[in-house]
Structure formats: C-alpha cells, structure tokens
Task: structure prediction
Amino acid sequence: MATAQERKKIILCQAVIRRWLVMRKTNELTKNRRHRNQVVREILDTERVYVGNLNTLIETFIKPLQASIDQKKPLINQKSLTAIFSNVELLININKALLTGLEARYAKWSNQQKIGDIFIELAPFMKSYTQYCGNYDLSNETLLRCIAESSEFKNFLET
Result:
C-alpha cells in the first residue's frame, strides 16, 4: 500500500497529465475554430470579389452594348449579346442573394454558426450555372466572330 506522500505524488502526476490532456484538446479545438473562421472569411471575401466582378462586367460591357442596340449602328445585335454573356444578369442576382446571406450570418458569427443552409437554400438556383457553363463554346465563338466582323465592337472592347 502507498504511503500518504506517494499518494500525493501520484495525485500530482495525474493532475499534470489531466491538465496536459485538457490543454491539448483545447489547443486542438482552438486551432480548428481558427481554421473554420478563416475558411468562412475566405468564402465571404471570394463571394464579394465575384459579385463585384459580375457587376463590373454588367456595367462596363453588357449595359453599354445593350444600349447600343437601339442606335442606328449598334455595336452588336441582341442575339450575339445574349450568346456572349448568356445569363450573367440572372447569375448576379443569385450571387448577391448568397453574399447577403453570408454577410448576415457572418455578422453574428459564433462557433455554433453554420453556412451550409445558405448554399442549400440557393442550390436550385445554382443550376443556372449549367446554362452559363454550357454556353462557353458558343460565347467564345460569337465573341471572336463579332470582333472579326466589327472594328467598332473590337475598339469598344479594347477601350
């Protein structure tokens, strides 16, 4: 049987081991939380940039080209405009909704918050990307044809 002093040493040793195990688990949880927060921030930042880029595309190219269609000598016709830019104006609305949801969730961010439900809610609308991606070859072909056929269109793109 252990003496009182030996029991104190055993208890002290157990306490040190328990503290070490708790610290290890706490450090692991903290590292996972930091990584999780970083991933969510990256998703949010990427979505902000993407929505900004879509907005630039619409404001810089689509709207001016659309306005030129009503002029005597349009830079491009409606069929070519649609072929080149497909459903970008629909996509920006989907991504703005995604961004709004992510920003609202991140404003109240905690370790228990999740963002997957935001993506799930918008998943049916994300099918619009199928049309956008499927239009890639037609978009490139139409763009190259319009550049070759119209020096005004080519100049518009270059300025």
